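Record type: monomer structure entry
Structure origin: computed from sequence
Chain ID: A
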Amino acid sequence: MTALNRTGVSHTVFYLLGIPGLEDQHLWISIPFFISYATALLGNSLLIFIILTRRSLHEPMFLFLCMLAGADLVLSTCTVPQALAIFWFRAGEISLGRCITQVFFLSSTFIYESGTLLVMAFDRYVAICHPLRYTTVLTHALIGKTGVTVFLRSFGTIFPIIFLLKRLTFCKSNILSNTACKHIVLARVSCDDIGVNIWYGFFVLMSTLVVDVVLIFISYVLILRAVFHIPSRDARHKALNTCGSHVCVIILFYAPGIFSVLTQRFGRHISPHVHVLLANVYILAPPMLNPIIYGIKTKQIRDQVVHAFFTKQT
């Protein structure tokens, strides 16, 4: 393992350290990682199976939820197994090609999930503000086109990062103090000017995640305005309840990421292991908790799960 390449030859192999400064605690840290990953796999797979096999759930809201569950599976699978390999077997070696591939899938899936949350907000807006037009606006054809658009946006915005990383010469350290390859983490061990990488990363952030947050906020402002004009208290409560799960998932998805970015920008005195742990929260928590939130708060899904597992036994 070479920390510094003095020959000027670009590294093609890197070593992920896991949680820097807590190497002796890796075995204990692996427990919540493993539990969250197992829960995410089971919960999201069950959610996708229930939605796809139950005709009564072939509605826009549940189809968008199926997209979200699929993104959660990819998001957790492209990072957590590798983190567990580091914690259990110290298997942190990764080639440059695999590292860049992980950057691509991690970043594009994150943007895809953000786009899915945006279209779910639009779904709730149409359902509450224009209920009579809901079935005519959100057709299966539109849902398919929306899914393809969200996918192409995530793919298209992250694809240039592959070439921005491949152009760099990695002649500094080949040690990455993280559990996974990240765009800027990898770029910082380069000898070249990474100004283009930083500015393009900023452009991606502003044109996708920030735009999504603003549009989701506007959607819910319009939803709340429509809800408070409903004369019936019960109807207001029912309308707000249909948005409860989505709001919880939105907070769960964006809050850890925003907090992690703020600590990296302004918390220079914070220990490196804290930054890495915070960065892992937004990869671990949403995939694990999203199916639980929707399973508990959405009656249709809850009923179908009970029907699938208990009806045949009685």
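Annotation 1: Residues 96-129 form the longest helix (34 residues).
Annotation 2: The first strand starts at residue 13 and ends at 16.
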